[in-house]
Amino acid sequence: MTKQTVSELLIESGSDTISYRGRVVRALVRIPVNDGSLVRVRRESVSSPRLQALKISINKGAVDINGYREPVIALWSHTSPEDVELTVRGRDASVLEVWNAWSMGGVDTSWIGNSGIVTKASASGQLLQCSDGIGQATFSDLVATIEVRD
User: Fold this and answer.
1) 111-116 — which CB contacts under 8 Å span 24+ positions?
2) Does the N-terminal or the C-terminal CB of the chain have fewer CB atoms within 10 Å?
């Protein structure tokens, strides 16, 4: 019997959250927001040899970074600053969704293999410990803190 990957376990569960080796692992993290919420994303570390990214989307509206507005953005480890502030724009905006991605041969990849996020509450928001889908689930490939202020 082959051991199932985190992604396979998530699919089998029918949920975006599972228990894996004593940890709560999420396919994506949902954070409540409002129109005008300020979101600070701080990349704490990257330990993977692959390029890593946090993908951020808003359910209804756009993410605004310095006047650049998109419904989904990617904060790549090799091109974005360590600290990024963005504003939620959208009268009906209520949920920010965050997931990890990585580059495989230049292809933006998410939600396969052993990818997932372990979250921990911190004094400044939520600490996201991301595992890309390659190899063992490590939850240290990309580590970032997200803080939301209304």
Assistant:
1) 111/7, 111/27, 112/5, 112/7, 113/5, 113/6, 113/7, 114/5, 114/6, 114/7, 115/6, 115/7, 115/27, 116/6, 116/7, 116/10, 116/20, 116/25, 116/26, 116/27
2) N
pLDDT in tens, 61-105: 999 998 999 999 999 999 999 999 999 999 999 999 999 999 998
Q: For the chain, give every domain's residue range.
A: 6-149
CATH topology for the 6-149 domain: Jelly Rolls (2.60.120)
Q: What is the pLDDT of residues 14-36, one digit of tens each?
A: 999 999 999 999 999 999 999 99
